[in-house]
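Researcher: We're teaching a course module on how sequence relates to structure. For the next exercise, students receive a sequence and then see the predicted structure as C-alpha cells, so they can try to spot secondary structure elements on their own. Here is the exercise chain.
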Amino acid sequence: MSRVDIGPGDLVYDVAPGDLVEVCRTLRDDELLKFEMLLDVCGVDYLGYGHAEWETRHATSAGFSRGAHRGDSFTREKLADTDLATKGRFAAVYQLLSVSLNQRIRVKAYCENDDRPMLESVVGVWASANWFEREAFDLYGIVFVGHPDLRRILTDYGFIGHPFRKDFPLVGNVEMRYDPTKGRVVYEPVSIEPRTQIPKSIRDDNRYSPDLKDGGNA
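Model: And here is the predicted structure for the students to work with:
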C-alpha cells in the first residue's frame, strides 16, 4: 500500500490487487481507522492517458481525445513515459468514509491483466459494494471475483461491449427500435455516422481578445 500525492488534504493509496480484500478489511475493522462505509466503487480506463490528438496554445492536452479518429490504437507501450506503464490500463477506485472519526480515504487497485481485468470482490467487507461492482463490470468490463451476482446493471442484458471503455465507439455498435410487423424490439447496426469533434481551425483574432472576455470593455 503506497501513498499517492495528488494534493493537500486528500488521502489516496494504491493497493496491490492481491492485498485488496485484506487492506479493505483492516480499514474497516482497525480501531484507529474505522472506515465503516463504502461510498462508491468506480472503474477507470487509462487507455491513452496523457496523450491528445491535437494541441494549441490555448487548450489543454486533455480535450477532444475521444472524438478523434486515431491512426492507431493506444497501447501500454505509449504509456512508457508515465507512471502507469507498469500499473495497467484498468483500475477500480474505492471511496471510503469513517462516520465515527469523520475521515475519508480513497483506495485504488490496478488490474494486472489488460485483456481480462479482474479484482477480488469486497462485497464480503461492505455489502454496498454489490451494485457498485456490478456497475464497474457493466461499464468497464472489470470482473470482480467472488461477487455473488455479477451481471449487468445499467445496459441491456443483450448489450455487447462495455460503453465506458475509451476504445468503445462514441456512436455505439447497434441501435434498437420497435418493429410493428414483428411485434417486438429489434437490434440493427447503428446508422449514425461518426463525426470528429476537433475544431477545423483555431482562430486567433480580435474576437478572442482578453478585453472582450467576461464583460470587458472593447
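Model: If you want an answer key for the exercise: Residues 63-69, 71-76 have pLDDT under 50 and may be disordered. The chain has two helices and nine strands.
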